Amino acid sequence: MPTRRILRGFPTCIALLAxxxxxxxALQGDAEQAxxxxxxxxxxxxxCVIDAETGQRLVDINSQVPRIPASNMKLLTSGAAAxxxxxxxxxxxxxxxxxxxxxxxxxxxxxxxxSMLLERMVDETGRSLDVESFxxxxxxxxxxxxxxxxxxxxxxxxxxxxxxxHPSWPREQLVKRYxxxxxxxxxxxxxxxxxxxxxxxxxxxxxxxxxxPAVDFLEIRNQVTSDPKKRVTDLFDVxxxxxxxxxxxxxxVTRPMTPQEVTVHDMPTMFGRILAERLRNRGVRVESVRLxxxxxxxxxxxxxxxxxxxxxxxxxxxxxxxxxxLYAEALLKKLGATYSRSSGSWENGTTVIRHSVQEHLxxxxxxxxxxxxxxxxxxxxxxxxxxxxxxxxxxxxxxxEAVFIESLPEPGEGTLRxxxxxxxxxxxxxxxxxxxxxxxxxxTLSGYVLDDRGRRxxxxxxxxxxxxxxxxxxKLHEAVVLDLVEQIERGSLSAAQP
Length: 498
What we know:
This protein is an alpha+beta fold.
């Protein structure tokens, strides 16, 4: 009898395996064909697709080759942070009154004073916050406390080290917002916005002194004209001398222009000076401003004003949805600080991420190189197989891992705002959640295709070319992912077994 049952079931098993095999073979063939259609060289492309339910590798093209992941590096950083810090983790930045000292205690929160997040918040009157009203929350609290004199305003940024810039980041781009310095006390994304205006009162120089937040102590070298007769009438560029806050501005401005974001040096010190300036304007004497020294004790004192708290979920969203490098690097250094119990650094943070990733792979990846958290460094080396396996290891039923998965954008959102828009179809019973990445000669996309039954296909498509071909790479990304959508919506892989 057992033998007859096995024999009766055998044709069904053969048919089932045939369906599985045909779907799997179709995906591999479709991916190969998509590469040919893209015009890219096969050796420049790595693709790995894994069925998270079964662990089956559905597409494998150069999947073990280590490549520069660009911003796909954020998947490793943010995933490790979600797992190790937990879904309920909160960054907390505090203001303490310690005798005659006022102490700002940083927690490495990249969202502290982020103007884009402040717009979502309201004060007690229901008005949206901006950077000045955000600062006034603490200033008002000090004034309401009756404090009229401060001997020292100290910024304790020791949660992170003071190596603000990764050594492998391109020096000529350090003025750009995507290369903002990483510090233990971050404010306004460690950038300042300049608001150039045309000259007034017959001057030949444009007004470039306005900034957000307003800072009166910047050194600005203004070479911006305001001449409507010039061939180029509206051009504005800002450069900052390396390791300083000396700004040189050039161009020609004949009308108010949109704000230009520029990184600043040593935001902890700048924030201390900004806060001291606001306090003095309210009649509070502030004798001096300094950073905490290595031999300063852990500061204790009475909390003044609200503790500024940011949930990890919000940091993950900004990291992955909007691809802010500062957020990823803050997560990296926060992991380093948490697990080394010393100041967070690229050295101890990359160690934590590397160990976390290796721990969740079926087999360790000896070629994995973690240089930074955001992917800005070209020293990162990750294979498509490692990224896909890492994504497959995430469990949607685990709250900490679910918050990571849901931090990824869908088409039409964040960095996927303009992706998957020209394919002539809408997703019916499935979702695409993915992280894009781009550096010159590196264009990547990794993430999930999910169906309404909980099935997850995890994919990583890494394109590194000797010449820059982002359009071809993006065309390939979308062709491969939409093939996955078609297969999962047809149910071709629904009966797969381990």
